[in-house]
Every structure is written in structure tokens, then in C-alpha cells.
Design a protein that fits this description.
Elements: E1 34-36, H1 51-64, E2 66-70, H2 77-84, E3 103-105, E4 108-109, E5 119-122, E6 130-132, E7 134-141, E8 149-153, H3 154-162, H4 165-173, E9 175-181, H5 199-203, H6 208-217, E10 221-224, E11 230-236, E12 239-242, E13 247-250, E14 277-281, H7 289-300, E15 303-306, E16 313-317, E17 321-325, E18 337-342, E19 345-347
Parallel strand pairs: 1-2
Antiparallel strand pairs: 2-16, 3-4, 5-17, 6-19, 7-16, 7-18, 8-15, 8-17, 9-11, 9-14, 10-11, 12-13
Bound molecules: fe (ii) ion.
The site of fe (ii) ion has 3 residues, from loops.
Length: about 350
């Protein structure tokens, strides 16, 4: 790396909107979703799968859409994965994620984002036609302080947002996800300034024609832009019908806006219109700053912290909850590593007119 870089790339722009994550009181009583591993363990031994544990996890997931198993006595990802899969999640390869994830273990993926960045509340893979019903986390390595993941009760958030003019506008106009994927070959000797993901990685090919074809298979409008950028556009509802509750739920967030990069090194310094992601209404019209703030705030009002201990396992319904996390500060020698499990795929249905 022989490039001299300007300090500015490590500084955020002014006026960034930092999420508050929660009100200080969890939106749902943890007694409804926490399962204490001690109740399912032989004293002195780590937690192992059992019919009782499996039944309890399934029932909790069915009722609440959220399960947090604590006090497992485990510290390796494979054993945690065996507990997590007590709730059938039909794991699949992580395809179509716009940010890079390296394989951590078979079917367990690292969270592909810098720790210095906070990750706004989001629904996993909301920006492509094939989404996921569930996401799971396995707490593998944690810092001494902080490092929590937050979930937001999306059922309450939906009702709240639909009662506002902004919510009605979202319902009527839908959303457009704008993405600019960089060309890996343009960065061989350079720092990845302004890079979110390269098209080669996102589309899993080195062939430009195949990349366009793959984008279109994913339901994206795709074309080449200046400097080898692959520009994709995806227009879809901001909501998604959730069969179990028989209603349309919010299924989008500011995580897919340029705001996502407010604290990403090497991207945060860029003006909004040069960032790799942007969210507009479905007709291409821009959201105002106030509207974006409303979109952030609604999830913060229904937030719930998941305060991890090593060995914890959480399963999160991707319809009923959004998830995110504050920035993580690591001391010397500390790590934060969560295994991620992606559940069953489903094709976006969008909404039904009589299910609001
Ligand atoms: Fe996520």
C-alpha cells in the first residue's frame, strides 16, 4: 500500500444521524424470549440439543419471533450452530448480500461490516427479490464492554409509521434501492476508498456480461456506469406481507440509504451523491432529511438490546424484527465475532391491498 491518503477519509461528515437504538426500556419483556440454558443442562456440562430445549425454542419463536438462549456454557461455533438449528432454518449459501462476508465455518458467516461503523436497523436482504425468513447469531468472541446487537419490534414500528403522512407516502410510492458496485480491477494497488462491494464479489463472476445477467436474474435493473461501476436499481414495496400475522409489515429501513456509510472508514467522507448506496421513493423522488429521520426514529422507539455473553444464540424472525448494532470499540487484544446463520429463502410477495 504505497498510496498517500488524506486523513479526511477517516472522518465522518458533519450532521450524521446516530441511532438511539432504544428508549431504555425493552419494547418486549425479555421474559418472553430469553431461554436460560441452565434449565436444560446437566450441571457442570455445556448445553446440548434435546427435545425439551427444541420444543421451548420453537414455541418461543412461533409466539414472539425472537429467541435468545443464554448460559449455554459453549464457546465454539459448531456447537452453537447445533443448538440454533433446533429451530429449523434451512441454511443456505449467502448469495446476493451486497456486502462481502467471508465464510467462517460451513454455513456460519461473519458479519461483513467494519466495527467502527454502526449498522442501522434493517431487515436482512430486503433489497433483493429473494429474501430470508430468519437470521441467527452465535456469540463467539466479545469485547469486555459493549458489543450488543439490538432488535426492533417491527410490528409496533409498522403500526406507528403507518399512522404518519410519511408512512402513507411510503405505502403509496414504494422504494427504489440504488447501488453502485465498483470494479475490483480498478483497486488492485489502491485503498478501497468509496468501495462498498465490487461487482465481481457481489455477482460472483469475473465476466461483465455474466454480472449483468446475474443482476437481472435477481430482479435488478442493471447497467454500466463511468469508471466500470455496475449500477443496479431495484424498485419494490417498503412493506412485505407476513403470512403468520396475516398483515403487511414494514420491510425496509435507512440501512439501505447513503446514511449507512456515515461511520464507514473510506466512505464516510464522501458527499451523499457519491456514496455506493442510496434510497429514494419508488418513483425516484427524494426523501427529505426529516422523513429520513422519522424512518430512523421509528425503529429506535421499539428497540431491545441483546446483551451477549460468549455462547449465546439468538434467532430473529426477519419479518417481525429489524436488527442492527452500535459501533464497537475494541481494546488491544479484543475481538467481536458473531456467527451468522441465514434462514429459509422466500420470494418477496410485497403487499396485499386488504391486509393493512
Ligand atoms: Fe444484518
Amino acid at each position: 500500500m504505497n498510496e498517500i491518503i488524506n486523513e479526511a477519509v477517516f472522518a465522518p461528515l458533519a450532521n450524521v444521524a446516530e441511532p438511539k437504538w432504544w428508549t431504555g426500556t425493552p419494547a418486549i419483556d425479555p421474559a418472553r424470549f430469553v431461554i436460560d440454558g441452565h434449565e436444560y443442562r446437566v450441571a457442570g456440562r455445556p448445553l446440548t440439543p434435546s427435545d425439551e430445549l427444541s420444543a421451548s425454542m420453537r414455541q418461543t419463536f412461533e409466539d414472539v419471533g425472537l429467541v435468545h438462549v443464554i448460559n449455554t456454557g459453549l464457546d465454539d461455533l459448531e456447537s452453537m450452530r447445533l443448538i440454533a438449528t433446533q429451530v429449523p432454518i434451512n441454511q443456505r449459501k449467502y448469495e446476493g448480500g451486497a456486502n462481502p462476508r467471508k465464510t467462517l465455518q460451513a454455513n456460519v458467516f461473519e458479519v461483513g461490516a467494519p466495527l467502527e461503523a454502526w449498522l442501522h436497523y434493517h431487515h436482512e436482504m430486503a433489497y433483493i427479490g429473494s429474501s430470508t425468513k430468519m437470521i441467527g447469531f452465535l456469540a463467539h468472541k466479545l469485547p469486555s464492554k459493549g458489543g450488543a446487537t439490538f432488535v426492533s419490534d417491527n410490528v409496533q414500528a409498522t403500526t406507528d409509521l403507518l399512522a404518519t403522512p410519511f408512512g402513507q407516502k411510503l405505502k403509496q410510492r414504494g422504494l427504489c434501492y440504488h447501488r453502485n458496485l465498483t470494479d475490483r480491477n480498478a483497486f488492485t494497488d489502491k485503498l478501497d476508498i468509496g468501495v462498498y462491494n465490487h461487482w465481481q464479489q457481489s455477482m460472483m463472476t469475473e465476466d461483465p456480461d455474466e454480472a449483468i445477467a446475474e443482476a437481472r436474474r435477481r430482479g435488478l435493473d442493471a447497467q454500466w456506469g463511468e469508471g466500470g461501476l455496475l449500477k443496479t436499481r431495484y424498485t419494490i414495496s417498503a412493506f412485505e406481507y407476513f403470512p403468520q400475522l396475516d398483515r403487511n409489515l414494514l420491510y425496509s429501513s435507512m440501512a439501505d440509504d447513503s446514511m449507512w456509510f456515515d461511520t464507514w472508514p473510506l466512505v464516510q467522507h464522501l458527499p451523499i451523491d457519491q456514496r455506493p448506496l442510496k434510497l429514494t421513493f419508488g418513483d425516484g423522488s427524494e426523501m427529505t432529511r426529516d422523513e429520513k429521520q422519522e424512518f430512523l426514529d421509528v425503529y429506535d422507539r421499539y428497540g431491545i438490546p441483546l446483551d451477549w455473553e460468549v455462547g449465546d444464540i439468538a434467532l430473529i424472525c426477519n419479518y417481525r424484527f429489524a436488527h442492527g448494532r452500535p459501533a464497537v470499540e475494541l481494546k488491544e487484544g479484543e475481538h467481536r465475532e458473531l456467527g451468522v446463520l441465514i434462514g429459509d429463502a422466500f420470494d418477496r410477495l410485497e403487499t396485499y391491498p386488504d391486509k393493512w
